[in-house]
Give the backbone structure.
Amino acid sequence: MKKYVAELIGTMVLVLLGCGSAVFAGGVADTVGAGVGTIGVAMAFGLSVIAIGNISGCHINPAITLGVWLSGGMKTKRALMYMLFQVVGAIIGSLILTLLVSTGAHGGPTTTGSNSFASDAMGQAFLAEAVFTFIFVLVALAATDEK
């Protein structure tokens, strides 16, 4: 079960950080000095895969799991469970992202910035802090675990 939950969390993080950086960069990606830009989006996708590799192999994408299964690298039941948990993780990541951008005008960054937030974004600011602090702690623990 630990491997399945790791795939769920990993896929949620990939969608939230990778797709989220693209969403937030959206309207300002071509503006010099604004938003994360193309390199920032690429780095967000790349860096979001490092936390769970030692637990489950870090597939975090049904296409990768399908490829591993087709090449004989895993049994059918495990591959199907990985894919199920990955889809659920992607849905959770998408829902969190939707909640973070559901109010206010966004020319890129949200109105849930550090140390302040728009008056109508308290719930979003709390959600952002809770989720991103969870991810921060997860990465810190994974990076310092001797196993």
Notes: Residues 68 and 74 are 6 Å apart (CA to CA). The chain is about 65% helix and 0% strand.
